[in-house]
Amino acid sequence: MASSVKGNSRLSIAMERTGQWIISQEIPSDVMVEVGEANFSLHKFMLVAKSNHIRKLVLESTEPDLTRINLSDIPGGPETFEKAAKFCYGVNFEITIQNVAALRCAAEYLEMTDKYCDNNLTGRTEDFLTQVALSSLSGAIVVLKSCEELLPIAEDLKIVQRCVDVATSKASIEASFPSRTPTNWWTEELAILDIEFFGRFIAAMKLRGAKSLIVASAIITYAEKWLRDLVRDHSGTGANAAFSDDSDLRIRQRELLEAIVSLLPSEKAALPINFLCCLLRSATFVKASSACKTELEKRISVILEHVTVDDLLVLSFTYDGERLFDLESVRKIISGFVEKEKSVAVFNAGDFREVCSAAMVRVAKTVDAYLGEIAPCVDLSISKFNGIANLVPKGARKVDDDLYRAVDIYLKAHPNLDEIEREKVCSVMDALKLSYEARVHASQNKRLPVQIVLHALYYDQLKLRSGVDENDTMQDAVTTRSQVQQDVSLARENESLRTELLRMKMYITDLQKSGPAAKGSLGAATTSSGKGGGGPRKGTFFSSVSKKLGKLNPFKQGSKDTSNIMDEGVDITKPRRRRFSIS
């Protein structure tokens, strides 16, 4: 019912408009022209005089008196046909840059050429296109925009190509010699185009040899207009809307983003890194193709030395900033930059492990600060934390203070880690590369494993004894690291031995308290075990303690180390019997 009312209203409006300019109400109309849902009551002789297409329809009709003509496929629809009909009736109307392309296509469709009739609609629209519409950059862009609904006839008439040629030519001039402010005003006007025509414009600009920065400026403006919710909106209001990955909106965003990435200039440094990070975050969010994400990751990796912590955080968190989003891209970006630096070092015949470039040092500081920002996230696993930290070469960090800060924050945010897990977290840093202030803090930090605390304390004591300046201790730190590890191992064995001795003392005390009966049972057990009965001997408590004592070598690495004594001249066939007693 509603559709019929709507159709009747359109019909009445179309007839009312037609009645205002028709040549004479005294001459009844003899043909009804249907264009979509609109109908026009007109006169055949007026239309045939200007349109060869309508003349053919009348002549080729099998009906003796043709009363209805269907022109629903005319370019531009009812509004354009109405203006073409006015032209046939000699009624004045305005040709503008908004409607000239549609009128030109309609004139071609209706065959209203100068060959059929002098000074026809085709010639009038061509003159307007050449002299007015395509004489300025803004006019060319508007005409090109109107051609989006006129394909393929606008393409066949070369209107699209003419608009692209004029727009690129005048944009190149405008970019070099701005005529008004802001200087990038033309990129705003260019953003009205759909992605297909925008892509043709960018391709034509590249063929003209336009600078990459000019092309990049147009692409940034376009992306910020059409992907505003993803690229510019950091509040999460646009991205958190209830749209599934397969919704029409997400599909359009995905296709648009992939098309924009394919248009990026070949020069990697032409685009700002924060814009690339926003694009990559958007690509991850809309689930763009792997090729699209890889291209963005490579571009960011090339200029990673200019990245900030905030740029990396843009990649890592969701739009609301509440949870981690994507660390895999960050890992690939850092890994790609490190591989590039390695290749440069090899090419220059240098040792990448010992000497790192200034760019690598800057990236190392940024990565350490980035780890400190993501460390409080409860869903950040040890493997992911260590994986990113270990990507940076050890030589790129002159001191590990920033990394120690990140480790400390991680341990504080994850209090339920056991000793082994805490050691894994701390394995990414070198306690001997901490500054004096950081070592003092580490020596009092109860969250750190014992091994790290001992490293810091041992190194401080070594420096105090040697009296070496802070700047000259790096080489000593490397040479003493193995000694510190051995001392830590010895400390653990001492602790284990102390525990065993305490257990043994308690055991003997219980035997003394239990009286003669316990002693007799102990003697009987010893006698039975001394006889050559069947079965292997079971290890006693005393034998286990003896083994513990045997493993401990208090003179290891000392002046009485016997590990290097030669076996020659030593009789080991009949060792002397020794009596071990414990008091």
TrEMBL record:
Pfam families found in the cross-reference section: BTB (PF00651), NPH3 (PF03000)
Annotated InterPro entries: BTB/POZ_dom, NPH3/RPT2-like, NPH3_dom, SKP1/BTB/POZ_sf
Keyword set, alphabetical order: Phosphoprotein, Ubl conjugation pathway
Domain BTB, residue spans: 29-97
Residue ranges of the region described as Disordered: 516-583
PROSITE patterns associated with the record: BTB (PS50097), NPH3 (PS51649)
Pathway(s) the chain acts in: Protein modification; protein ubiquitination
Compositionally biased intervals (Low complexity): 518-529
Phosphoprotein among keywords: yes
Residue ranges of every copy of the NPH3 domain listed in the record: 184-463
Domain of life: Eukaryota
SMART domains: BTB
Cross-referenced PANTHER family: OS12G0117600 PROTEIN
Family: Belongs to the NPH3 family.
UniProt protein name: Phototropic-responsive NPH3 family protein
Organism: Prunus dulcis
Phylogenetic classification of the source organism: Eukaryota, Viridiplantae, Streptophyta, Embryophyta, Tracheophyta
